[in-house]
Amino acid sequence: MPSSASPAAQSPAAPHEFWQDIHPPGTFATTGLHTSFFPAELDDKRQICLPIRPLADGEHALASLIVNQASFEVLEALAADLAAKLAPFSPDVVIGLPTLGLTLAATVARHLGHSRYVPLGTSRKFWYLEELSVPMSSITTKQEKRLYIDPRMLPLLEGKRVALVDDVISSGSSIIAGLSLLASSSIKPVVIGAAMLQSDRWREKIAAFGPEWPERVRGVFATPLLTKAQDGWRA
Fold it and tell me: Please, which pLDDT band fits residue 13 given cuts at 50, 70 and 90?
């Protein structure tokens, strides 16, 4: 039994068992030593177990969320919560960032009562325009790609209140790519949404792009940068 678990609860043990359940409040201790998983808390204190991924420096680690591997129950809970956080901004349209942000953005749009959403992509179709693309990289996929918007989708965005959605905000690189791409078409989102805000490392980078952006970010839950300790990790 992991040392961060309460006596009555067991952590998921196999990789395919993470992100499948929402546990009652207090099922797992959020303080102290964490070994194989970190219990993220929703606003109502329900918990989702996230596997811990050590970083290259060997001294730090992050909790991981792969939203397109989550159960439908977890996806629906995250999307409903995020939609409620975005609703005060009255978005007319939701834009999803690839790859994992697309799964979340589509479900968020549905919870907002929209009939569709606009997906960005990294696969160039023959009718795409190079000037409607920007370089893109992320913490989980080190290779650089290009982020595209389908030019046929621009009429859905022009003059509209736009919400930009990704699954996780970690370094901020993917969000900045999305903001840069939209800015090339004079589109400025009213809000940025994500299921997980992975530590605070993204704040400085997004603020450098524009000081207004950190305050426009909304997340379902936040997870800390974990530090290596004897036999585990501490927040």
Answer: low
Closest CA to 232 of 50, 13, 18, 36: 36
Which pair of structure tokens corresponds to residue 117? 């959403």
Mean pLDDT of the chain: 91
Of 29-33, 113-117, 135-139, which range is least confident? 135-139
Q: Which amino acid is at 43?
A: D
CA of 214: how far to CAs of 34, 64, 97, 146, 192, in Å? 29, 21, 18, 24, 9
CA pair distance 86, 217, nearest whole angstrom: 9
In this structure, the strands spanning 133-136 and 145-148 are antiparallel
CB 133 within 8 A of CB 144: no
Q: At CA 120, angle to CA 164 and CA 21, rounded to 5?
A: 65
Q: What is the CA radius of gyration of the chain?
A: 18
- How many other CB atoms are there within 10 angstroms of residue 101's CB atom? 28
Beta strands in the chain (DSSP E): 33-34, 37-41, 47-54, 60-63, 93-96, 118-119, 133-136, 145-148, 162-169, 191-198, 217-223, 226-229, 232-234
Closest Cα to residue 94, out of 173, 178, 172?
A: 178
